[in-house]
């Protein structure tokens, strides 16, 4: 039986990260807070008054970018807005997936409804109607430098409103006019400033970065569970997780991660079985999980704050201030905050995979782990997890290259009018590939750690980890001899991409905490 859609009520400027995560997840209907309507109407009245007075104002009755000094006569303003959308629809590459497009549409609605864009309420209502009808614009993934906003991809979103190009409904491509009809709409004729308000803004970069954040917190959670399983597999020491160590340093993520891992290990027979073994130190990939993963958590939390702010922002240009009647040209379309947030998410994702791959290598080294070489009996005839670790190393290494900051790059555009750009769209887009890689790395580690723990049977791990092991074994079997591992690796990648985690871990995640 179909599940009823969840209703997300948007209060522009106050939309939570948890709401944005629901929108990303799908099966959502949007409603807009009625209080937003008066601000939208007042801003529109300001624009209409400027047009009626014939006052030359950038973005309303002028050209754009380097052509901002060109005044456009009143009878050509509708043509100006239409031409703007058509001329800027120059994206290329694969289409962005529906989960990202949903967030783009929702954040564009939020931005326009802040009451600083000067658009008609009918335009915002049209976007909400299309969203709720499941009519998604076809937006190519490449073609934005992240300033002056995400011009090309947002132009492709805007094409839908004009009845131009294609849309996607339940995965099926169709002409935009058909999509509009499905939603009970006809093509819009854009009024003064509306084309520019639709095209300017950071919504595509922000949506892609939010995808990176939401997928990144999943692999972070998986990394904590996999790390705890690896500690059990090598019979590592829990002493480095003593809260006194972490409170002495004071880093909040480190303190939280140490407590979460200690909670995962509570009640373990394996831990008590070697309490007096005299082991002094474990390698850093086990001992320094709180320090490394805690720093990753702090980065994810900082990025979450930036992206929540940006998702609620009025980021087009110029902005309308109806109280004074001013229309002011600035630069809120410059996506540097999003680029920085995406870059630190990239660092976190890369490090989650890097430390996981090192624990995987540790598990296979019998001299350090105390386990059979490559975690398999009858070694020599069987290679065990030998080459699975090579895959993990390849993916972790690939992420090192992908983690190079996008924000340090810039190429001038628009005849040097736009002489410094953020590259936020690329910085955010590459996070999808990085999360895929790290999910596979962490999944391989967890599979190997489960193999190691099975060599310690009949000893039991903690109740929480035994529950994780039982779920893991439903996905992949114990490796008693060599078999095709590629399907198991894919199963474990999916394991690392799930939403449900032990409460102590889930409570740390930015999308849960807000």
Short characterization:
The chain has 514 residues and is mostly helical.
Verbal overview:
The protein is mostly helical and 514 residues long. The chain has helices spanning 17-25, 35-53, 77-88, 98-112, 121-132, 151-162, 176-182, 194-199, 203-233, 243-249, 252-265, 269-273, 284-287, 289-311, 336-364, 366-369, 386-402, 424-454, 463-475, 486-496, 503-506, 510-513, and strands spanning 6-10, 28-32, 92-95, 135-137, 140-142, 166-169, 172-175, 319-321, 326-328. The strands form 4 sheets. Strands 4-6-7 form a 3-stranded antiparallel beta sheet. A hairpin with a 2-residue loop joins strand 6 (166-169) and strand 7. Helix 3 (77-88) crosses helix 6 and helix 17 (386-402) runs antiparallel to helix 18. The longest helix has 31 residues, at 203-233. The radius of gyration is 26 Å and the shape is elongated. The mean pLDDT is 94.
């Amino acid at each position: 039986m179909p599940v009823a859609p969840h209703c997300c009520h948007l209060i522009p400027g106050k939309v939570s990260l948890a709401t944005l995560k629901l929108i990303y997840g799908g099966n959502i209907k949007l409603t807009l807070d009625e209080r937003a309507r008066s601000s939208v109407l007042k801003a529109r009245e300001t624009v209409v008054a400027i047009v009626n007075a014939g006052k030359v104002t950038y973005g309303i009755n002028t050209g754009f970018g380097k052509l901002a000094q060109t005044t456009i006569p009143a009878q050509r303003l509708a043509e100006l807005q239409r031409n703007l959308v058509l001329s800027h629809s120059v994206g290329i590459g694969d289409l962005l997936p529906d989960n990202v497009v949903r967030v783009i549409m929702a954040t564009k609605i939020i931005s326009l409804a802040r009451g600083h864009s000067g658009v008609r309420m009918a335009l915002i209502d049209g976007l909400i109607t299309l969203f709720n009808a499941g009519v998604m614009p076809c937006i190519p993934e490449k073609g934005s430098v992240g300033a002056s906003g995400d011009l090309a991809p947002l132009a492709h979103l805007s094409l839908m409103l004009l009845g131009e190009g294609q849309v996607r409904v339940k995965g099926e491509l169709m002409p935009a006019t058909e999509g509009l009809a499905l939603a009970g709409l006809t093509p819009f004729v854009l009024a003064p400033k509306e084309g520019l308000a639709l095209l300017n803004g950071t919504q595509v970069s922000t949506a892609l970065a939010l995808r990176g954040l939401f997928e990144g917190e999943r692999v972070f959670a998986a990394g904590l569970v996999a790390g705890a399983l690896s500690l059990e597999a090598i019979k590592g020491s829990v002493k480095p997780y003593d809260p006194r160590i972490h409170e002495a340093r004071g880093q909040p993520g480190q303190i939280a991660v140490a407590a979460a891992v200690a909670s995962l290990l509570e009640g373990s027979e394996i831990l008590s079985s070697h309490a007096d073994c005299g082991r002094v130190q474990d390698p850093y990939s086990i001992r320094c999980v709180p320090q490394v993963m805690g720093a990753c958590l702090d980065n994810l939390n900082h990025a979450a704050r930036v992206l929540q702010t940006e998702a609620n922002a009025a980021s087009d240009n110029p902005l309308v201030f109806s109280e004074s009647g001013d229309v002011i040209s600035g630069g809120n379309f410059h996506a540097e905050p999003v680029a920085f947030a995406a870059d630190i998410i990239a660092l976190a994702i890369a490090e989650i995979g890097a430390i996981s791959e090192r624990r995987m290598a540790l598990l296979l080294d019998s001299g350090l782990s105390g386990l059979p070489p490559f975690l398999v009996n009858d070694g020599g005839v069987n290679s065990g997890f030998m080459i699975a670790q090579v895959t993990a190393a390849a993916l972790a290494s690939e992420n090192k290259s992908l983690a190079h900051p996008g924000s340090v790059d810039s190429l001038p555009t628009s005849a040097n009018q736009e002489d410094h750009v953020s590259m936020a769209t690329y910085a955010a887009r590459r996070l999808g590939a990085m999360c895929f890689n790290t999910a596979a790395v962490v999944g391989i580690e967890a599979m190997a750690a489960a193999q190691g723990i099975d060599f310690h049977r009949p000893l039991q791990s903690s109740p929480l980890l035994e529950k994780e092991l039982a779920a893991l074994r439903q996905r992949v079997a114990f490796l008693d001899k060599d078999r095709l591992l590629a399907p198991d690796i894919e199963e474990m990648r999916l394991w690392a991409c799930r939403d449900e985690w032990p409460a102590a871990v889930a409570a740390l995640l930015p999308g849960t905490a807000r």
